[in-house]
Specification:
With 510 residues, the chain is of the alpha/beta class. The chain has two domains: 290 residues, P-loop containing nucleotide triphosphate hydrolases (Rossmann fold); 210 residues, no CATH class. Helix content is 43%, strand content 11%. It is built from 23 helices and twelve strands. A hairpin with a 2-residue loop joins strand 11 and strand 12. Helix 15 crosses helix 16, helix 16 crosses helix 19 and helix 22 crosses helix 23.
Length: 510
C-alpha cells in the first residue's frame, strides 16, 4: 500500500545515527526507538483513508503483528540499521537471540536479574511495528476493518459496507504492559461482564455486554507482562489459551476472538523459588526463553551510564569510569548476594548523585562551573546501600564494604588512565612535593581555584587534564578535579598520606 509507506516516511523524517527521526513530529514520537512510554502519539496524517472503501482502494492488505515484526526486522537487518537502538551490551548475545525468535514468530520470556534492561528491550520492539495501522472507529479491541473479529464490528461492517468509518492507530498505542501483581485478576487481563452495558438494555447473553481486559485491548499489538512469576498461578492459567489458541474465555460466554498479538514477558530467575513460579504449561507455550545479562565490559557500562544518567553538572569521564568499575566490583564481590544482582540503576544513581554533589559545592563556593570530583564519591556511597542485597554474614559492615570496593575501583581506573610513562614526571613531582612537608586540602566546600592556589604552579598540569579529559575545556574546577584524582591515586598506591575529618580531607598529613 503506497500511501501507508509514504506517510510513514513523511512522519518519521531522516534518521540520525541512533535511528531516531530528526523532524519535530519524529521527535514527538521518538520514544518508540527508546523507552519513554509516556509520550503521546502524533496526530493522524490527514491523507490516510477514512472509510473501508477508500482503504481497500488504496491497496491495503492485512497482515498479522508477527508478519509486521518479521518484515520490518528483515528490512532493518538488510539495511544495516540498529535493531534495538538504545540497548547497550546485547549486540552479540541477547540481540541475535531475540531477532531469531521474532523472525520465527515466537512469543518470548526474558529472564535476568534486576536492572538488566529487560523491560527496556521489550518496549523497544514497538519500533519494529508499522507506523500506522487502520482500525474500525470506536472499536475497543482495534479491529482491522477488512477482517473484524468482534461482534460489534462485524455487525457494523454488514450494515455500512464500504462506508464503515476507519481511523488509524500509531504504533506507540499498540503496546500493552501489565506489572504482574498478586492482586491481578482474570478480569483485568481477559475481561468481564459490564453491568452498565447490561443496564442499558442488552441481554446478559449478548457478547457486546463484555468489558474487555488488557489482553484483547492489545489486539494487533504487543502485550508485555513484567515480573510474570508474581502473577498468581490460577491467573496464569487464563493466559494458556491466549498463547496457544489465540482466543479468550470469559465466564460462561462462548467467545471466540482470534487475537492477533505478540506476547512477551520478563522474569527474575530468583522468582521461580522465592516469590512464585511460572507454571509449566505456560512456560511451554513461550516459543523462546532468553537470558539477559549485565554489561560485559567497562566500556559498555560507561556507555550505559552516559546514555541513561540525567546530569545537572559535569561529571568527568574519568569519574564515570570509576563508577562503572565500582559497579562491576560490587557485582563480583562475594559479600553481595549474587542471586539478586546489582541493577544498572546503581551506577546511574551514583553518577547522578555525584552531579548533585558538584551542584552543592558550586552553591557553597559560588562557582559557575560545577564539576564532580573523586572526593565526592565517599559521601555518595552511603546513599547506594539500599540498592545492594548483601550476604547475611555481612550485616553491619555493608557501608564499609562499599567504600572498600569504591577505593579499589578508583585505583584500577587510576592505573588505567595515569599508569603510563607520559605522566610519570608529574606524579613523581607531586610525591616529592608532599614529601617536603606540603599538604593539600580538598572537600565539598573547597573551590577548585583555592585548591590550585594551594598547590601552586606545576609543570605538566595541562598534560594531566588532556590525558584525563581530552574533550573538555580547561576550567579551574575541571583542573582541580583532575588533580584530586591524581592525588587520590597516589594515596591508594601508598605513595602519600591522607587524613579525613568530616567533610575535609588533607593529603600529605603525617
Amino acid at each position: 500500500m503506497a500511501a501507508i509507506f509514504s506517510v510513514r516516511t513523511a512522519a518519521t523524517g531522516p534518521l540520525n545515527d541512533r535511528g531516531v527521526g530528526t523532524c519535530p513530529l519524529a521527535r514527538a514520537a521518538s520514544w518508540t526507538y527508546g523507552h519513554d512510554v509516556t509520550r503521546l502519539a502524533p496526530p493522524v496524517p490527514a491523507d490516510l483513508p477514512t472509510t473501508l472503501g477508500a482503504l481497500r482502494a488504496s491497496g491495503y492488505e492485512h497482515r498479522s503483528v508477527k508478519d509486521e515484526l518479521r518484515a520490518n526486522l528483515l528490512d532493518r537487518l538488510a539495511a544495516g540499521e540498529p535493531t534495538f537502538p538504545g540497548i547497550v551490551g546485547f549486540e552479540d548475545t541477547v540481540g541475535p537471540q531475540l531477532e531469531r525468535a521474532l523472525l520465527a514468530g515466537h512469543d518470548v520470556v526474558m529472564l535476568g536479574e534486576r536492572g538488566q534492561g529487560k523491560t527496556r528491550l521489550l518496549r523497544s520492539l514497538i519500533a519494529l511495528l508499522d507506523e500506522w495501522v487502520p482500525v474500525v472507529e470506536g472499536c475497543e479491541i482495534n479491529d482491522d476493518p477488512t477482517v473484524p473479529i468482534c461482534a460489534r464490528c462485524r455487525r457494523l461492517a454488514g450494515e455500512q459496507g464500504d462506508d464503515l468509518p476507519v481511523t488509524w492507530r500509531h504504533r506507540s498505542e499498540r503496546f500493552g504492559e501489565k506489572l504482574a501483581t498478586p492482586d491481578t485478576s482474570v478480569g483485568d487481563l481477559v475481561g468481564d461482564v459490564d453491568p452498565i452495558k447490561v443496564a442499558e438494555g442488552r441481554s446478559l447473553g449478548d457478547t457486546e455486554t463484555i468489558h474487555f481486559g488488557l489482553v484483547p485491548r492489545t489486539h494487533r499489538g504487543i502485550f508485555a507482562i513484567n515480573e510474570l512469576p508474581d502473577l498468581a498461578e490460577r491467573i496464569q492459567v487464563a493466559l494458556l489459551n491466549v498463547l496457544e489458541e489465540r482466543d479468550i474465555q470469559i465466564r460462561g460466554y462462548q467467545v471466540r476472538l482470534p487475537l492477533d498479538l505478540l506476547v512477551v514477558a520478563s522474569a527474575n530467575p530468583e522468582d521461580y523459588t522465592n516469590r512464585g513460579r511460572i507454571i509449566t504449561p505456560l512456560k511451554d507455550r513461550f516459543g523462546a526463553e532468553i537470558r539477559t545479562h549485565y554489561p560485559a565490559t567497562v566500556d559498555a557500562e560507561v556507555e550505559l551510564i552516559e546514555q541513561e544518567a540525567s546530569l545537572r553538572a559535569l561529571v568527568p569521564s574519568h569519574l564515570v569510569e570509576v563508577v562503572a568499575r565500582f559497579t562491576r566490583e560490587v557485582r563480583e564481590s562475594p559479600a553481595v548476594d549474587q542471586r539478586s544482582g546489582v541493577s544498572a540503576r546503581f551506577s546511574i544513581a551514583c553518577v547522578e548523585a555525584l552531579s548533585g554533589a558538584a551542584l552543592r559545592r558550586a552553591a557553597l563556593t559560588g562557582s559557575d562551573h560545577p564539576v564532580a570530583r573523586i572526593g565526592d564519591l565517599a559521601g555518595v556511597v552511603p546513599t547506594l546501600r539500599g540498592k545492594v542485597e548483601f550476604d547475611v554474614s555481612e550485616e553491619g559492615s555493608e557501608e564499609q564494604t562499599l567504600q572498600l570496593l569504591a577505593r579499589r575501583a578508583t585505583a584500577d581506573a587510576w592505573r588505567a588512565r595515569l599508569g603510563g610513562n607520559d605522566l610519570r614526571p608529574l606524579l613523581t613531582w607531586l610525591v616529592s612535593w608532599f614529601d617536603e612537608g606540603n599538604s593539600l586540602v580538598v572537600g565539598e566546600s573547597v573551590p577548585g581555584q583555592l585548591l590550585l592556589d594551594e598547590l601552586g604552579p606545576v609543570e605538566g598540569l595541562g598534560r594531566l587534564v588532556s590525558t584525563l579529559e581530552p574533550d573538555l575545556a580547561e576550567t579551574p574546577e575541571l583542573v582541580a578535579a583532575c588533580v584530586e584524582f591524581a592525588v587520590e591515586g597516589l594515596w591508594l598506591t601508598r605513595r602519600i598520606d591522607k587524613d579525613s575529618v568530616g567533610s575535609i580531607t588533607r593529603y600529605g598529613a603525617s
